[in-house]
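Fold it.
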Amino acid sequence: MTVEDENVDPSDPYASPLAHFGSEVKLERERLDLKRPEFAKKVSCSPSLVAKIETGNRVPGLEFAEACDQIFPHANGRFVRLWPLALRYAFPPWFRRYAELEWVASAVRMFNPQLVPGLVQTEEYARAVLRTARPTNLDDLVTARIERQRILTRDTPTKVWIILDVGVLTRTVGNKEVMRGQLTRLRDLAETPPHRVQIIPDKGRHHGWASPFGMLSFPEGKDVVHVDGFPKGYLLAEADDVQSGNDAYDLLNALALSPDESAPVIDSIIKDHYS
């Protein structure tokens, strides 16, 4: 099952949006009398993955949903419309509301003293991070994390501003190759408008913030704070909490190097640590 703390039967097409998506794929495939291997070629994935999606045991990527709409007559975009609901089911229940808000946010500001935030992780880095918790649904968690990143490349991208402790860049996740790819991704993001990346240098003192947190802003409505933690993260929308979040981010911005100064730091660490 995708979410381990929900007692549902994934074979029941009404058990979840994920199970419903899979049952609809199987129904349409069989209606066309397509065997799984033949259908798998058309959607560019393995027959075993098709089987897992059809039984509600794997989360499909958006490309899979788009391919279904192209292959199945009279789909009329149904699978792409179902896809966000199926993807939502891959997240832990406590994270789903945040994922919904992130999807419609106009700007996301993030601070992390330990890791590159999931919103900008490479697939290899994400897999290495998520594997540490020994989840039984690792592939789904990775898929869900990477699919979140579509907000960065859509026609009107969400503006992302990331502040990281420099230790994030030197703390090896996976191996050197994984880190080189991740820092290169971070460097590219720093050079891609409207995003920005800032690094807090090590000046021998702790900057005062130990927990990752972020701020979501929207075209309409007030900001929301998201605090990452164990075992669950949480959202804060009260005016005082939002003001505290904004104040904290302003202080971190003051401590960090400018975006133009931060980019060479990333380059130097790639060269010195991961070349």
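The chain has two domains: 17-88, 93-274.
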